[in-house]
Design goal:
The protein is an alpha+beta fold and 364 residues long. It has 3 helices and 23 strands. The chain has 4 domains: 89 residues, Beta Barrel (conserved putative lor/sdh protein from methanococcus maripaludis s2 fold); 91 residues, Efflux pump adaptor protein, beta barrel domain (Elongation Factor Tu (Ef-tu), domain 3), CATH 2.40.30.170; 61 residues, RNA polymerase II/Efflux pump adaptor protein, barrel-sandwich hybrid domain (OB fold (Dihydrolipoamide Acetyltransferase, E2P), Beta Barrel); 74 residues, Helix Hairpins, CATH 1.10.287. The radius of gyration is 41 Å and the shape is rod-shaped.
Length: 364
């Protein structure tokens, strides 16, 4: 009996411990601000892009042959007329010499045809040869003259082709691409280099299908280079592709910078293009106020000074700025938004809202 009494006593003690009152929930102080200081802030939509030359020319030899030498490499600066690469000119020169010899032969034939015509014409004047003989000699002369013109034209073409063995830069710029190497045999028209001309810089970016009707050529944009994050350059959209990319389903677009800005920006540098839309954000909050329900659903903590509790409110936001983000929907101007310590909060948790002057926020 003593053992059963001891077990009953222990069960009673354990039951008493299970019914003990839970520890009170800690009241956490939080820094809050009101989201109502950005009335009329323009809505900016951001797109990632890269710096490109306005004119990018694919350069190729106009004749085929073996690459004898390559004088430039990727990234080199060139001036107009600089030789970029050369083909072996031996065959082209031999062809030009052969056609030159054909010109000399045709000219010799022309000299003989003229002499024959002069003799026949003199005899015809004295009526010593028939009219048909004179007509035949006249035709021979015209044919010899035509052969000379054809031979000279072919010789000129061969001379040009011999000059085409040197590939020259059509304008000043930078070598943005190289597809040939010394010793390689290339065909006429095969891409050899890509020249990014110094005629200006643009930002190439892609527009999603959902935004294509909201953007038009000539629309104002702001451009922020990753190398200069605190500086926003002005520009306008210069072109939008009429057809979407079949794989990415986006429309290629280009924005030209105003007044030749950022002409020294490196080709291929990353940039962000902000398109100024007609929609305007009514509110904005500090970046630290934004919490994430998931990857695509931002939210903020709103503290109620009356109940001294917080609740998570989903919001729709615009493009992130340097220190703040516009809120398009989900908040009222009178809401007190938590801007510090939000990652430690839970929905419905008791808090003490404190403003930037370290004073508790009272209910109105």
């Amino acid at each position: 009996m003593g053992l059963f009494a001891l077990m009953a006593l222990m069960v009673g003690l354990l039951a008493g411990c299970g019914n003990a009152a839970p520890k009170p929930e800690p009241i956490r102080p939080v820094l809050v601000v009101q989201a109502g200081a950005a009335e009329g802030v323009p809505m900016l939509t951001a797109y990632s892009g890269e710096v490109r030359a306005r004119e990018e020319t694919s350069l190729a030899f106009r004749v085929g042959g073996k690459v004898l030498a390559r004088y430039v490499d990727l990234g080199d600066r060139v001036r107009e007329g600089d030789v970029l690469a050369e083909l072996d000119p031996t065959d082209l020169r031999l062809q030009a010499d052969a056609l030159g010899a054909q010109v000399a032969s045709a000219e010799a034939q022309l000299v003989r045809a003229r002499a024959d015509y002069a003799r026949v014409a003199a005899l015809a004047k004295d009526q010593l040869v028939s009219r048909s003989a004179l007509d035949q000699q006249t035709a021979s002369l015209r044919a010899a003259e035509a052969q000379v013109r054809a031979a000279r034209a072919q010789s000129n073409v061969a001379g040009n082709q011999s000059a085409y063995s040197a590939l020259r830069a059509p304008r000043a710029g930078a070598i943005a691409g190289r597809q040939i190497e010394a010793g390689q045999v290339v065909a006429a028209g095969q891409p050899a280099f890509v020249l990014a001309a110094d005629s200006g810089r643009e930002i190439a970016f892609a527009l999603p299908e959902s935004k294509i009707r909201e953007v038009s050529v000539g629309q104002q944009v702001l451009v922020e280079l990753w190398s200069a994050p605190q500086q926003r350059l002005t520009g306008r959209i210069r072109e939008i592709a009429p057809m979407a990319d079949p794989l990415a389903r986006t429309y290629a677009a280009r924005a030209a910078l105003d007044g030749g800005q950022a002409t020294d920006a490196g080709l291929g540098q990353s940039a962000r293009v902000y398109i100024v839309g007609a929609e305007r954000a009514a509110l904005q909050v500090p970046l630290t106020a934004i919490q994430a329900i998931d990857r695509t659903s931002p939210a903020v903590w709103v503290a109620d000074p009356k109940t001294q509790r917080v609740r998570k409110v989903p919001v729709r936001i615009g493009a992130f700025g340097p220190e703040s983000v516009p809120v398009l929907s989900g908040l009222k101007a009178s809401d007190w938004v938590v801007v510090a310590g939000g990652h430690l909060l839970q929905d419905g948790q008791s808090v003490v809202p404190i403003d930037r002057d370290n004073r508790p926020v009272k209910a109105n």
